[in-house]
Design a protein that fits this description.
Blueprint (H helix, E strand, L loop, with lengths): L2 H8 L3 H9 L6 H13 L13 E6 L5 H17 L3 E5 L4 H11 L5 E5 L18 E5 L8 E7 L1 H14 L5 E5 L5 H16 L9 E3 L5 H13 L6 E4 L2 H13 L9 E5 L4 H4 L5 E4 L2 H13 L9 E5 L2 E3 L8
Helix pairs in contact: 4-11, 6-7, 8-9
């Protein structure tokens, strides 16, 4: 179809349409929507690309665990199929670094950002609230109006179910080793664990929650070593992420404690064969690849920063291999 015909159909000048086809973000949102509606009403929208998002950016704390790697691969799958430019930035769990990253892209137009916040303990966002970029967050939750899309994991339900399995499998004194309470996924997994403790009428006055660092293997190792040194009793562990679990398993092995006979365990995230050293460890895995692929797909479908808020919730998948069952 010729530009003249599109102009007559939509009531928009040929010059404006030409500029819009080169860069949809160079004209007012109302003009883009007017043309999009005209194309759709005539059944030819698929022949003209008016997508607002022309580049995707991932801002992520690190690529050290399986969830982040699978999320990254899901995004790559989408951007390669759509032939969209893609950039990745590592924040290294630093809010200051996030501010620097967002400042680099603040003048870019047509950018979709998939962001895993370094921390949720903050009063301000690392970008201007009137940004024209479209922001999606995954894995961690923030409640700000300028966040358009959320891909959230149902951590509470998964942790509750995992703890149910540990207790029903013979665990009488379970503990959870989780991440910083500044992170929503760490808090939600803790709260799901405690709900199961309450429902099974176990002693709620005993300290069963231990906080480590989701990005530090040594923190999981040190927690278990200190518990053993101080003779604090436990017979089952909910490890709230893969990195913590590696340290936990190392400490249990050094203490000659067998799994699941001495200590039963369920781990959030996917462990590699090298990390489990032949052990059959039960896991709770969120579909990170699907989260990455779907979040990037939804971002690329957005027509303007004024798009309606969208929230997608994902359930954990259980892979039970016997480490949860002492009986």
């Amino acid at each position: 179809m010729k530009l003249r015909e599109i102009s007559e159909m939509s009531g928009i000048s040929i010059t404006t349409i030409s500029r819009m086809l080169k860069n949809p973000n160079s004209v007012k949102e109302s003009t883009r929507l007017k043309l999009a509606n005209a194309l759709e009403s005539n059944g030819i929208e698929e022949y003209v690309n008016l997508d607002y998002i022309r580049k995707l950016i991932l801002i992520i704390p690190n690529l050290n665990n399986s969830f982040y790697l699978d999320l990254f691969n899901g995004i790559i799958y989408t951007v390669q199929n759509k032939n969209v430019p893609f950039e990745i930035y590592l924040s290294n769990e630093s809010i200051e670094e996030e501010i620097k990253i967002f400042s680099r892209i603040k003048n870019d137009s047509g950018v979709g950002v998939i962001w895993i916040p370094a921390s949720e303990k903050r009063d301000n966002l690392p970008y201007e609230s009137d940004t024209e970029n479209i922001i999606a967050i995954v894995d961690r939750d923030l409640n700000f109006d300028s966040i358009h899309i959320k891909g959230l994991s149902d951590n509470f339900s998964a942790a509750k179910q995992a703890t149910d399995l540990l207790i029903e499998g013979g665990g009488k004194n379970p503990i959870i080793i989780t991440g910083s309470p500044d992170l929503s996924n760490a808090r939600e997994r803790r709260d799901g664990f405690l709900e199961s403790i309450k429902n099974h009428f176990l002693d709620e006055n005993i300290n069963r929650v231990y906080y480590g660092d989701f990005s530090d293997i040594q923190s999981g190792y040190n927690i278990v070593k200190n518990l053993l040194k101080d003779k604090i009793a436990f017979d089952s562990i909910l490890a709230a992420n893969q990195i913590l679990a590696i340290g936990i398993l190392k400490a249990l092995n050094e203490a000659n404690l067998s799994i699941p006979k001495d200590v039963s365990i369920i781990v959030f995230d996917k462990l590699t064969k090298m990390e489990v050293e032949g052990l059959q460890i039960s896991e709770v895995i969120f579909p990170a690849f699907d989260i990455g692929a779907n979040t990037s797909k939804v971002l690329l479908e957005q027509k303007s920063p004024a798009s309606l808020k969208q929230i997608y919730n994902y359930s954990g998948r259980f892979y039970l291999r016997g480490s949860e069952n002492k009986e």
